[in-house]
Write a structure and sequence with these properties.
By secondary structure, the protein is mainly α. Helices cover 62% and strands 0% of the residues. This is UBN2 domain-containing protein. It comes from Cephalotus follicularis.
């Protein structure tokens, strides 16, 4: 009696509050709702006949609606088998997916859940492919960003200046700091020779005054941070050997 009253509607609880026998309560509820099957069955059969896989945007929506209808049919005494579920899904594929429907038939699924599992996996993979294509369409490979690379190296250099051996703290570091200062005060011309041995001294002085890269001639980065394509570098290096004013 406690179990029955726990699961019935609150309005029915007060209506059958005086009934103390659980068998009597069960019979009263059965008599009251016996006509429910005859009311639900026609609508459930109509929904089953109108159900089509192609009318849903996702597999999950179709699967949820299908089992809702199936549960109503089973409550009304109708028998729904696995073959009926499979055929219902196969026959309601979109006309443009006839070949795909035939491929799924060739798998010879015995359980409806196996077919739905395959459809869910295929749907998820298609969504991932579309997202990857939208994020970067075909033929739009990203090019290396020279400015970002140079700023990265520049940030590292600035970080070293704030470390040991710089500013007012250099007097407290002793001989070790003196060695580092000697390295920092090396001749710029000599360091440029180490970075690009094939460059002439005159070209180096010209490029240093302009603030351009000794490798490609572009502004905004150093030789070590240069990411310019090799064929552009070859053209630039070849132009330096000419004494034409239109370089």
């Amino acid at each position: 009696l406690i179990f029955l009253r726990h699961h019935i509607d609150d309005g029915l609880k007060y209506e059958y509050l005086a009934v103390k026998n659980p068998l009597e309560l069960w019979k009263n509820l059965n008599d009251r709702f016996a006509h429910l099957k005859s009311v639900v069955l026609p609508k459930a059969l109509n929904d089953w006949s109108q159900l089509r896989f192609q009318d849903f945007k996702t597999v999950s929506e179709y699967n949820s609606t299908l089992f809702k209808i199936v549960s109503q049919l089973k409550m009304c005494g109708e028998v729904i088998t696995e073959d009926m579920l499979l055929e219902k899904t196969y026959r309601t594929f979109h006309a443009s997916n006839v070949l795909l429907q035939q491929q799924y038939r060739l798998h010879e699924f015995k359980k409806y859940r196996e077919l739905i599992g395959s459809l869910l996996i295929a749907e998820q993979n298609n969504e991932l492919h579309l997202q990857n294509h939208e994020n970067r369409p075909t033929g739009s490979a990203p090019l290396p960003e020279v400015n970002a690379t140079s700023s990265h190296f520049g940030g590292r250099g600035r970080g070293r200046e704030r470390g040991r051996g710089s500013g007012r703290n250099q007097n407290f570091l002793g001989p070790r700091n003196n060695n580092s200062m000697k390295w920092q005060n090396l001749d710029t011309k000599q360091r440029q020779k180490w970075r690009n041995p094939g460059q002439s001294s005159n070209d180096e002085q010209t490029q240093n005054r302009k603030g351009n890269c000794n490798r490609c001639g572009m502004e905004g980065h150093w030789y070590r941070a240069c990411r310019t394509a090799k064929y552009w570098v070859d053209l630039y290096q070849a132009s330096l050997k000419k004494k034409d004013k239109r370089i």
